[in-house]
Amino acid sequence: MAVTGAEVLAGGGTRFSVWAPRARSVALRLGGEPDRPMRREGDEWSLTVEGAGAGARYWFVLDQARALPDPRSRCQPEGVHGPSQVVDPRAFRFRHEAPRRPLAEWVIEEIHVGAFTMEGTFAAAAARLPAVAEIGINAVEIMPVAAFPGARNWGYDGVSLYAPCAAYGTPDELRALVDEAHRLGLAVILDVVYNHLGPEGNYTNEFAPYFTCARKTPWGDAIAYERPEVRSWLVDNARHWRDEYRVDALRVDAVHAIEDPSPRQFLSELVEGARPLVMIAESEPNESRVVDEWGFDAVWSDDFHHALHASLTGERTGYYRSFGPLPRLARAIEVGWVRGAEAEHARTLSAERLVVCAQNHDQIGNRALGERLAHLAGLPSARLAAVATLAAAPSVPLLFMGEEFAAGAPFLYFTSHGDPALARAVTEGRRREFAEHGFAWPERVPDPQDEATFRRSKLDWQEAERAPHDGMRALYRELLRLRRELPTLGARAKALCRARVDGSLLRVARGPVQVVMNFDEHAAGAIEPGWRCLLLSEERQFGGTVDRPGNVLPPRAGGLYVPGR
Fold first, then answer.
1. Residue 440, pLDDT score
2. DSSP structure class, residue 534
3. Cα within 13 Å of Cα(157), Cβ side
């Protein structure tokens, strides 16, 4: 495919091109100048304009009617309904090389650019990255930044897939964020959505058959993955983030929602076309084909989260219904998958194939009130969750922003749709959904459209320096130090991991290291003599109330033990 959107030429000028097979005519509207007819070349239209360069704003005019933004626009400075802007990606000078670290050694923090700082910009996020790297995190996963309607959104309603959201900053400011991460030794993962586009501001189907009514999704007509031009548009998007922004990995949202009738699956072509990027999938069913057939390097594994959350909170509704007993958590730690016909297959998966967490944007934000684990179960349980995620589980760990200091802010669902009917449907639908699931006060569900809902979700970084939050941060720092210094605690040592339940204790052997976790709020568990305690999550330095034990594990406390000498 030759289509590139707007390409600044080395010799000067810009070549504009667009796929529009159904159009009788296409014109370029450049700034306030008269429309310029474009030349047809098969199903594509193109025009080179001398003197047009970076910063020029433009539209494509179909059949002398509507002026529309470019489906491959690199920048939408006035939002998804406004004109596209020419960008020269070669103008930015990257100064730092990406860290060379295998996936098995990654410790990931997931961030939402708008809520990660009070300013909510790429530049402000870059300024906070040293605080992330300082405790030992070595990768950041950025929730979707592709342009979406309005200024507030989780990002999964993106419609201009090549253009970073203007509310966060310019394309070069996103590049600077990636460059700063690399300076600090952080790998950068970008969350991308290829299973649907948001309804508002999605003009792609006016250009060409990007969608098909032959298949339906929860969001409407399905993307036409069987069309080579559509596949190219999406695979090129992955290359766009790789080549023009130098991200190190992509996390592909909800691949189970991608239905492709083609003999060769789109997802296989995506993974191959995006190399050498690390490719991570989110897939709700536990399916081996994600890694075995489609070639993804890793997949998010929800079973660990569900089992840990149910054990710590006592929740037993919805998908937590079958996850309460400790043996379920033991299996999630030792094997990886608990649910599904292929759960046993997870034994054959190396640990770096599974990404696990105690909290993420979905599991917090899809609650009615957006509560974090510390809000639901208390700080001792949050500390125990840190031990489970970073020391017990032989997988790639992921934290959610602020988890490392038990942030007080919730993470709520927020939007800023400009379409009044859509905005009303989102507000009413969310309250109706929680009412149907038994939430007693649906009127208390925060309105996603209210800007205050977004503001409440922003991290207060000053909190990280105050008790008890500083103690939680110290715990994460120490756990990550031990993870680096004790190789058996990493994601390469799944074969050495054995988990067993002993009353209220969950004992996980990681080679010569023992991780012992007590899930009873009142009972104390006995520890065999001859073990030396390296860390106890309820130590005073971490915000707890006890000193390191001898052979008694205090209630609700996680610990790491190694044999005495």
1. 53
2. E
3. 22
HSE (side-chain half, CA atoms, 13 Å) at 547: 1
d(CA 511, CA 488): 6
- Domain layout of the chain by residue ranges: 6-88, 103-306+333-377+389-465
Structure confidence at residue 69 (pLDDT): 98
Rounded Cα–Cα distance for residues 196 and 194 (Å): 6
CATH of domain 6-88: 2.60.40.10
Exposed/middle/buried for 532, CB within 10 Å: 0-12, 13-18, 19+? exposed
Residues 6+ apart with CB under 8 A from 360: 110, 300, 305, 398, 400
Residue type, 551: N
Q: Report whether 251 contacts 192 (CB < 8 A).
A: yes
Per-residue pLDDT for 564 more than 50?
no
CB–CB of 147/237 below 8 Å? Answer: no
Cα–Cα dist 306/292, whole Å: 24
Secondary structure class of 150 (helix, strand, coil): coil
Hey, which residues are catalytic here? 253, 282
Residue 27 φ then ψ, to 5°: -125, 150
CATH 3.20.20.80 fits 103-306+333-377+389-465, yes or no: yes
Residue 436 pLDDT exceeds 70: no
Q: Is 134 exposed, middle or buried (0-12, 13-18, 19+ CB in 10 A)?
A: exposed
Q: What pLDDT score was predicted for residue 80?
A: 97
134, 174, 381, 400 from 185: Cα distances, Å:
10, 17, 30, 19
Q: Which residue in 142, 140, 153 sits closest to 404, CA to CA? A: 140
pLDDT at residue 68 tops 90: yes
pLDDT for the residue 342: 85
- DSSP, collapsed to helix, strand or coil, labels residue 403 as helix
Torsion of CA 404, 405, 406, 407, to 10 degrees: -110
Lowest mean pLDDT among 45-54, 168-177, 318-327, 516-525: 516-525
Alpha-carbon span 453 to 386, nearest angstrom: 27
Q: Tell me the C-alpha distance between 270 and 206, whole Å.
A: 24
Q: In which residue are the tokens 């939007």 written? A: 415
- Determine the distance from the C-alpha atom of residue 327 to the mean position of all C-alpha atoms in its chain, rounded to a whole number: 29
- DSSP, res 322: T
Residue position matching structure tokens 């948001």: 198
